[in-house]
Structure formats: C-alpha cells, structure tokens
Specification:
Elements lengths: L12 H4 L7 H10 L7 E4 L2 H10 L3 E4 L6 H9 L4 H16 L4 H27 L4 E5 L3 H15 L4 E5 L3 H9 L3 H14 L6 E4 L2 E2 L2 H12 L7 E6 L1 E2 L8 E4 L21 E8 L2 E7 H10 L1 H15 L5 H5 L3 H10 L6 H7 L3 E2 L9 E2 L17 H6 L3 H6 L5 H6 L2 H6 L2 H12 L6 H25 L12 H8 L2 H16 L3 H19 L1
Parallel strand pairs: 1-2, 3-4, 3-5, 5-7, 6-8, 7-9
Antiparallel strand pairs: 10-11, 12-13
Helix pairs in contact: 4-14, 5-6, 6-7, 6-12, 6-14, 7-12, 8-9, 8-10, 20-21, 20-23, 23-24
Length: 523
C-alpha cells in the first residue's frame, strides 16, 4: 500500500469474515467506529453491496454507474483477479473520460491498443535479449505495430531501429508458388536494397500461416551476405509451424481460430502491395490503392489515432512494461472476437472495415457483409458468424444465432433462478420449518422435478444455443444468487441423490448439517 494509507483504517471482508452483500460488514464498522451512519458516505458500483445494504442502514451512498465497455466486462468477468488487466482497462477508461472520442478512436484506445501492446512489448523483450539491432515490420500488418514499437523505443531510449518492408501475399507468395523468376529476382533486389547486412535483424509479422514470410526467410537463409546476421521471424501467433532453418517465434500457441480477425486492427492506409518495379536504379513497391482509399474514406485513421493516444498515456505510466508482460488481455480480447455474443455496436463498426485479403479485385469488399438470399458466404469463413449476427432476424434464426430475446427479456439472474437447484432449495426452505408442511413436500418435490424436465425439453427443442452467462449485464448478481443457501441446498440434494441413489437418505442429513455450519460460519 501507498504511505498515504498509513493513518487510514482499512476494513476487509476477508479479515472480518463478513460481507457487504449481507450488510454485516457495515454493521461491524458502525459498531467499531461509533459513527453516525448519516455522516458516512459509501461509494461503490455494486447495486446490492454498495447501495441497497448501506442504504438500509441509513448510510449515505454514492452509487457509481459502471462505465465499462462490453468487451471490458467480458474480460473482467473471466479474469476478475488479474490486477494487470484491471490497470489496462482502467487506463482505457481514464482516456475515454478525459477525451471526446469517435467510435473508431474509442475502439483504438480501448480494444486495439490494449490487445496489441503485449505483443509489441514481447517483440522488444526478444530483441533486447538477443541483441537484435533492427526490426523489419512487414506490410500491411506491420504498419500499426511499427508505430507502437517506435513510441516505446523513443520513450525508453532503446538502441533498436525499425524499418518497414513492403510485401504481401500477392507480391511475395505468388511469385514463389508460380516459380516466376523475374519477379523473384526483383524480390531479391528489394531485400538486398532495404536490409542492412551489418547488424543483427529480425522480421516482424502479426499472424497467419506464415507461408508467405517463410518464402522470404528461405531467400535470406540462402544468401551468404546475411550469414550470422539474421535472427529469424516473430509472430503474435501462427497457425502452422515454420519449415525454415532459422527460428520463428510466436507469442501465443499455434491457433487457427483467430486467423484474419486480428488483421482488422492492423490495417495500412496505403493498401496492398501488388509487386515491384524499378525506377532510377531502385526497386519500388507497386500498390493497389483501392483498399487504401476505401480505408481512408472509412476513416480508419481515426482508429490508428486512438491506438496512438493510448500509447501516449502508457509511456507516461510508471512500470508499464510489467503490466504488458502479461498477455491475458490479448487472449481475452481475441476470444471476444470469436464469440457469438459479441457487442452489436462493435461488429457493426468493425464488420464494415474495407477488406481485401489478397490479389487484385475490381472493388473493395467489407470484412463481414450482411447475408440475404442473394449474398451468401462459406460457413468455414473465419468471421461467418459476424455476417450472420449483422443480418436480419430471419438469417439469424436460420443459423441459430438470434439472441435478441435472451438479452431483452431475461437476464443471468432469471436463468440461474430457472435451475432446478434453486427451485428445489427454495421450495424446501419455504416448507421445512413447519412439520405440517412436510407431507406437502412429498407431493411438491416430484411435481417440481417433473415440470422442470418438461420445460427443459421444450426449451431444448426451440433453442439450441448455449449462452455464456458472463455476457449479461446482471452476471455478478447471478453469481450472488448461485451462492444463496437455497441454491446450494438444492444443488447438494440433487448431486448426492444422483451419486448415492437410495443411500442418499442416510448421507443427506450429514451433508446438509455441514452446509448449515458453513453458512453460519460465513455470517
């Protein structure tokens, strides 16, 4: 803790074994401090623990409305104890509060930059550890990554240079596949022209199979001028292992699920490189400006501005390197991209990003076009789900992705309360105190179980979607309900009955007594 807290009493639930959600922690503090509750101002963002319970004790409350974005809630719900993740999201939130941002700038600040920065930090760590003096970022994915890396290098005054190499699947991979000697000769001349042979260097890519860059790596390996100077290639992740002599390192394990999705966040405003030409004795890249112009009209530069605004804040943050040595935020945000319950506003914006994977096209498509009877996509397409979710209700129903009713009519609390464990425990607690109602329980419990299973059959027939509760805004309240004694009692009875059958009659009294003791021990 900071010294500022030395003379400030701190009350923690874990020390008192009391909770805010029960109100008992507030009662204990009132008793210790002997303070008038009306002179106590309590601030917090939990509706029950920070508003209802203290208000019932006449404590003044300042309820803080959660201003997290959907993907931030998604990440925290999955890893709420990760302090680095909390700091990263806190920085993004601070930037949003202090600046007026467009939608694309907000995504750059809050999603793109936090997702990519652990990779940039990893690149620099690898470079420093292996005495790499120049990092060659490969177009187009290297455009944003180089900008981020340059800012860290400048802030820390690191002795590493960066350069941008113009290449693409079209300009590098296709000539080797087609054994086009003239184009391969131009590639060799371009590499010889751009790469400094007097210092150790590495190539930096973002993601993919690695096939395209591996062709270039093999050319470098076969050129004696680069002997002992080439370290290898770096990736955020690859979906296939390299077949080169030099090493190809990747931050995340081999993964095919994220392929192409992350490319939305590392586009270049220049467009695709189609090949090379010679002018005034130099090899120059030839561009297809179609995609670049479309990205400029889309205002993709606003997204990049958001990324760099985040970087400006980060380099002023103490010990930011330690925060971004943790790659959890990258993994969580990549998982968010591939989840069917992604925020609609997010996919409406990013699904419209102009996108050409490779090759010459007559017109620029978008990343996730809406589907209809005329426009269809291969279901194996990496972001087919985005297209479905952006489409009309009929299309969403067709592919079992119509989630409107789930998020509009019911919430996570409703779902938890629909569980048999909750229903059973509640019925028992309502009737157990009165011996005259015990006979009633003998009738009620079988009826409850039968009706629950019938409802479940109907639900499974109509809806075939398994929803992740953490996507609901009342997820935290649902977890509280799941910890209610009624839910735990019902769950205990069901689990014991399934495991022990008839013997459960003998075992259950002991198990229930244990549960009661645990409940009273917690307070």
């Amino acid at each position: 803790f900071s010294p500022i807290f030395n003379n400030i009493p701190i009350y923690m639930s874990s020390e008192f074994r009391l909770k805010k959600n029960s109100g008992n922690l507030f009662k204990a503090i009132l008793n210790l401090e002997k303070v008038d509750p009306k002179k106590w101002i309590h601030c917090g963002d939990n509706w029950v623990g920070d508003y209802l319970k203290p208000s019932n004790l006449e404590i003044s409350t300042n309820f803080y409305i959660n201003q997290l974005l959907p993907y931030e809630e998604f990440a925290l719900n999955r890893n709420s104890l990760d302090m680095d993740l909390q700091k990263i999201i806190g920085i993004s939130k601070k930037i949003r509060l202090e600046n007026t941002l467009t939608n694309l700038q907000e995504i750059g600040v809050s999603f793109g930059a936090p997702m990519l920065l652990p990779y940039v930090q990893w690149i620099l760590n690898i470079a420093l550890k292996n005495s790499i003096r120049c990092l060659y970022f490969i177009a187009r994915d290297g455009y944003v990554l180089q900008k981020m890396t340059d800012m860290l290098i400048q802030a820390k005054k690191i002795n590493i240079k960066t350069k941008y190499l113009y290449g693409s699947r079209e300009s590098w991979r296709e000539p080797f596949r087609n054994k086009d000697k003239l184009k391969i000769q131009l590639i060799d001349e371009y590499l010889d022209q751009e790469i400094d042979k007097q210092e150790i260097f590495a190539f930096v890519e973002c993601c993919g199979t690695g096939e395209t860059l591996d062709y270039i790596v093999k050319r470098i390996e076969s050129n004696q001028q680069f002997k002992n100077m080439f370290f290898g290639s770096l990736y955020l992740y690859r979906s296939k292992l390299n077949k080169t002599k030099t090493q190809s390192l990747f931050m995340l394990p081999l993964n095919e699920n994220y392929t192409y999705g992350i490319e939305l966040f590392v586009r270049s405003l220049q467009g695709q490189v189609l090949g090379y030409d010679k002018k005034d004795g130099r090899v120059i890249p030839v561009f297809d400006f179609l995609e670049g112009e479309a990205l400029q009209k889309f205002r993709y530069d606003e997204y990049i501005d958001g990324v760099m605004l985040f970087m400006e804040y980060i380099v002023k943050t103490d010990n930011y390197e330690k925060i971004f040595d943790n790659m959890n935020v990258t993994i969580l945000y990549l998982n968010y991209l591939s989840n069917n319950y992604i925020d609609k506003k997010f996919i409406e914006i990013m699904g419209n990003v102009p996108f050409i994977l490779n090759g010459v096209k007559d017109r620029v498509g978008i990343f996730a076009p809406r589907l209809n009877n005329k426009i269809t996509l291969d279901q194996k397409n990496s972001f087919f789900n985005w297209s479905v979710l952006r489409s009309c209700k009929d299309i969403r129903v067709k592919y079992n992705m119509d989630n409107d009713c789930y998020f509009g009519l019911i919430g996570a609390v409703d779902i938890i309360k629909s569980h048999l464990s909750y229903k059973l425990g509640k019925v028992i607690l309502l009737n157990i105190k009165n011996p005259l109602k015990w006979i009633k329980l003998i009738v009620l419990i079988p009826i409850l179980i039968f009706s629950h299973h019938e409802q479940k059959k109907i639900y499974l027939t109509e809806k075939k979607i398994n929803i992740d509760l953490s996507f609901y805004k009342d997820y935290n309240e649902a977890i509280m309900v799941r910890n209610f004694f009624s839910y735990q009692l019902g769950e205990l009875i069901l689990k014991t009955s399934r495991k022990w059958n008839v013997l459960a009659i003998v075992i259950l009294p002991y198990k229930i007594a244990q549960l009661y003791r645990k409940k009273f021990k917690k307070g």
